[in-house]
Design goal:
The chain has about 250 residues and is an alpha+beta fold. The chain has helices at about 5, 45-60, 125-130, 135-140, 165-175, 195-205, 230, and strands at about 20, 75-80, 90-95, 100-105, 110-115, 120-125, 150-155, 165, 185, 190-195, 210-215, 235-245.
Length: about 250
Amino acid sequence: MSLIEHCIVPDWPAPANVKAMQTTRSGGVSNTPYASLNLGTHVGDVPRAVAYNRQQLSSLMPSEPVWLEQVHGVVVANADAAGCLPQADAAVARRKSSVCVVMTADCLPVLLCDDNGSVVGAAHAGWRGLCEGVIEQTVRAMGVPPSSLMAWLGPAISQAAFEVGAEVRAAFMQHDANAENAFVPAPENKFMADIYQLAKLRLQALGITRVYGGDLCTYRDAGRFFSYRREGQTGRMGTFIWLESV
């Protein structure tokens, strides 16, 4: 199979000039435990293998993606800025061919675009960033009415595998009491969290009602996805979005 055949194309009604791609764990040259399309430079993989994997992906896109140093925060980078290699957990682009990317291995990747195909965004929504407002900050940086936006939720850990402490539930409920419905009690004062539902609550509160995806579990699908919770030492997948001329 070619590299593109290992990737997932988001199923959403985005404008024709909006292009997006989700990688899986297959199609690269990294060895176990990073086999094989690891895109993370910070996980202990051989740098030459990561560079090759990134280069092969870049050849499928109009330009080199703006790789972020992700820190589970809410800073949004401008992917149109020359030489932009920031410490951030989201990126937006308005210029044709600027490629936004976030990397995950259980955290939730969120893609956004507007109906006119004038702006795109990508957010890395681990529970900390999601709780603190990374989606809201990304939407704000896009600078268009939220009602004109649609979202796609990429592969992430599902509720059945995502055990969190009571403090995580409390943090989300402090922001929105409806978040209570996204947590199921587990033994020892733990809870099983539905990160997809938590993200949808944030999107809906912003006025974004067209939400797609959210049905791929990184933890359960070991054949296709990296999962930090399942494997500990593992690779990172990429979720990409950009604008093209049509």
